[in-house]
Specification:
alpha/beta; Serine Threonine Protein Phosphatase 5, Tetratricopeptide repeat; Rossmann fold; globular; Toll_tir_struct_dom_sf; TTC22; TPR-like_helical_dom_sf
Length: 383
């Protein structure tokens, strides 16, 4: 690690150092990553990402910065990781604005933006304004994504940042998008209030403090009360989802390498962290209900068929999963089917603190609450 840092420091921007020096530093960081604590070391991932960026290996740099952001618990260093990650993702949005992969990159950017704002509130003062000034159009697309996926609290919050950062009147097209978001939020508030879930909020769109404090209630209402958890994604929502891998890698004849059982409230992590790694980086073919279930088929039949067609079943353990009747049914179906096959095919992943269900207490789970061991997970899926 020390050798890697010395090579990294010796190759600071503008000093004329050849790429070979950066490549040597990267070699040391890659070796450090294989040490016992390497995968959990924020500095290794961060320095490695910087080397990869300077070598123009942008996709790998993004993945390395993702690991740093997921691991980092220190506010003082977190900004140094989240800012380049968001900047690179926003830059990808700009480069891919006319291509097929544009919407999934926007969704991935929005996911890490939301993670940053929930992890350290001060990100909004230190990072967001600079990003808005540099990537105004791309940043606005994240607000549109949040509206389409019914995360209206985050959508409004992003627009508030834009209003505070961009001086003068908004262009007509952008102002129209903002008006649609405001109408969606008002409609959602009325529906929730009529359902007796919560009191409607004030319609004063200029009250930033009130909006920020209401994000959680809006997200909860739209995520649970008003949406059917196993309802397929709309065509508009599908455009933002990761594209499915065409061919499975397993040699056992299964149509999918893995099927993911998860709560709808954990969909962002599944789509843009789990699938981004397993499908995007390692080209495994996964299955998630909202993207891959066959339309026109009974939900229960879809669940049964998909489990039988999947080499492994990942169960993403969170409090929300334990509250979902569909997730519980999927879990029981998976256990029943895989017991009949006499294979170790169910892999529980503990994402958030919760009580492990009795049905899988005798199965060793992968603890991802602080850090997900991707190599371990990949090895077990491919086994």
């Amino acid at each position: 690690m020390k050798l890697a840092e010395e090579e990294h420091v010796g190759a600071t921007p503008g000093d004329g150092s050849p790429d070979s020096t950066i490549e040597l530093a990267l070699t040391y960081f890659n070796k450090a990553l294989k040490l016992d604590q390497g995968p959990r070391d924020v500095k290794i991932h961060s320095f490695r990402a910087e080397c990869l960026k300077r070598l123009k290996e942008n996709k790998q740099a993004v993945e390395s910065w993702k690991r740093a952001v997921e691991l980092d618990r220190q506010a003082t260093t977190y900004y140094g990781n989240i800012e380049p990650l968001l900047a690179m993702l926003l830059d990808q949005c700009r480069e891919m604005s006319d291509s097929e992969g544009f919407q999934p990159v926007v969704a991935e950017t929005a996911t890490y933006l939301k993670m940053a704002l929930s992890k350290y509130e001060a990100v909004s003062d230190k990072v967001i304004p600079a990003l808005i000034k540099k990537f105004p159009e791309e940043f606005l697309h994240t607000a549109i994504y949040f509206r389409i996926t019914k995360d209206l609290g985050m959508s409004r919050r992003i627009w508030n940042y834009v209003d505070k950062t961009i001086r003068g009147p908004l262009p007509q097209e952008i102002a129209e998008r903002k008006r649609r978001i405001d109408e969606d939020i008002e409609e959602c508030q009325e529906a929730v209030a009529n359902d007796g879930v919560q009191e409607p909020r004030s319609k004063d769109h200029g009250d930033h403090e009130q909006t920020a404090n209401s994000d959680q209630s809006e997200e909860g209402a739209t995520g649970g009360q008003l949406l059917d958890e196993r309802h397929p994604a709309t065509e508009e929502q599908r455009e933002f989802m990761p594209k499915q891998v065409e061919k499975a890698q397993n040699t056992k004849g299964f149509h999918y390498d893995f099927f993911v059982i998860h709560s709808a409230k954990d969909a962002e992590w599944v789509n843009y962290t789990l699938l981004a790694n397993l499908e995007g980086e390692h080209h495994l073919k996964g299955c998630i209900a909202e993207r891959d279930f066959q339309l026109g088929k009974y939900v229960l039949d879809n669940i049964t068929a998909t489990i039988k067609q999947s080499a492994k079943v990942l169960v993403i353990l969170t409090p929300d999963l334990l509250q979902s009747k569909w997730c519980k049914h999927e879990m029981k179906e998976a256990l029943h089917a895989k017991v009949e096959e006499a294979t170790e095919s169910v892999i529980p992943v503990l994402l958030k603190d919760c009580e492990v269900p009795d049905e899988i207490k005798n199965i060793t789970y992968l603890d991802a609450r602080k850090h997900l061991d991707w190599e371990h997970l990949l090895r077990d899926i491919q086994k």
